[in-house]
Design a protein that fits this description.
This protein is of the alpha+beta class. It contains 12 helices and 11 strands.
Length: 363
């Protein structure tokens, strides 16, 4: 199978109901197929997991913190973009869409007209965390509700409401899209030279899905802000985002969703737990994208999809990248599958796995 196709053109458009049959890929799925095709296809294409798997605390804590980030972004909308009645309606509708009506009502109850903006932000954001469904695990002393709360307060104190205004599609429409937790679903169309008939072009279409944490204006340029949590947010951690395919793909999605060029991004890192020097707990890295990066991302997307398509119906034959059998200081849960003595045994283990489907569009 040729993994270096001659891609002659790539185009993007928003998906419609007629595109629901197309295979769907998000950044997590693409990255994990590259980490190990066997792991990525079983977990993210077939949506299977081993029975009795442990909680994925880094992912759960990160998701809980993101509820707080979204709440702070909503406070930004409320405090800076509601000069008129329509603006207030935009904020109210956005809050219900993001958090759900009942939960959003509880969060609003924490806002006190006599309190400072900072106090209201803290109370609103922490209520978003407390109602997120996250709970402590006795085996993890770092990723706790208390530690996430402290990190969120530091995040609030570093949040700049004036420098990066929120993107709002139409300030005259009460139901306007706003730049908070944008779920996107776009169709990526590849034109590829036919290997057998050089004059012919094959058309391949796939859906690319995900969620943008924040869409803002950096002066007159559209800018995504991607929120990250990590136990270490040093210089090496920040450096990875200079080339990260996730950021490039999200810039593609932002441009397709808004109709505006998007070449700029800010990666905002929040450390869990917060260090003793609080100022070192929040790091921000400004990264830009160029045309070559977009072409490289398209090639990465296409070749990853071809790898998945080749083995999705025969995953026992998929490559096993053994360098990833230990990830994040934990053994891969699929080692019993991969270490089986026969393909028959592997098929038996597959039958015993549990279905656990997830999509960024479901949240």
């Amino acid at each position: 199978m040729d993994l270096l196709p001659n891609i002659t053109n790539v185009s993007f458009r928003m998906a419609t109901d007629e595109d629901k049959h197309l295979p769907t890929y998000d950044n997590t799925k693409l990255m994990n197929i590259n980490t190990c095709p066997t792991w990525g296809i079983i977990r993210y294409s077939k949506h299977l997991k081993m029975p009795g798997s442990q909680r994925a605390m880094p992912l759960e804590a990160g998701a809980a913190a993101h509820e707080g980030f979204a709440a702070m972004r909503w406070m930004h909308l409320m405090l800076k973009h509601t000069d008129d009645k329509v603006g207030k309606m935009i904020a109210e509708n956005a809050g219900v869409n993001i958090f759900g009506g009942e939960r959003f009502g509880k969060m609003l109850d924490t806002i006190n007209g006599g309190a400072s903006d900072r106090t209201n932000c803290i109370n609103f954001v922490l209520e978003g965390l407390y109602t997120s469904g996250f709970y402590d695990d006795p085996s993890d002393r770092n990723r706790t509700v208390s530690n996430i709360s402290e990190s969120l307060i530091a995040y609030i104190d570093r949040y700049d409401m004036d420098r990066y205004p929120l993107w709002i599609r139409d300030v005259t429409d009460p139901n306007s899209d706003v730049g908070i937790e944008i779920a996107f679903d776009i169709v990526v169309t590849f034109s590829v030279e036919n290997e057998e008939y050089e004059c012919d072009t094959d058309i391949h279409e796939y859906r690319f899905t995900g969620k943008l944490d924040g869409l803002h204006w950096n002066r007159d340029k559209l800018c995504i802000i991607e929120e990250k949590t990590a136990g270490n947010i040093g210089d090496a951690w920040l450096a990875q985002w200079v080339m990260a395919n996730q950021i490039t793909g999200y810039c593609v999605a932002a441009a397709t969703f808004t109709g505006e060029p998007c070449m700029d991004a800010i990666v905002s890192g929040t450390k869990l737990p917060l260090p003793k020097v609080v100022s070192e707990g929040i790091r921000k890295e400004v990264v830009t994208r160029n045309e070559l990066m977009f072409r490289n991302w398209a090639h990465w997307f296409y070749t990853t999809v071809q790898l998945e398509r080749a083995y999705i119906d025969n995953v026992v034959k998929a490559p096993k990248y053994t360098h990833s059998c230990s990830r994040y200081f934990r053994a891969c849960s699929f080692i019993p599958f991969c270490a089986s003595e026969s393909e028959e045994d592997q098929l038996g283990i597959l039958d015993e796995m549990q279905l656990d489907e997830w999509s960024p569009l479901d949240e």
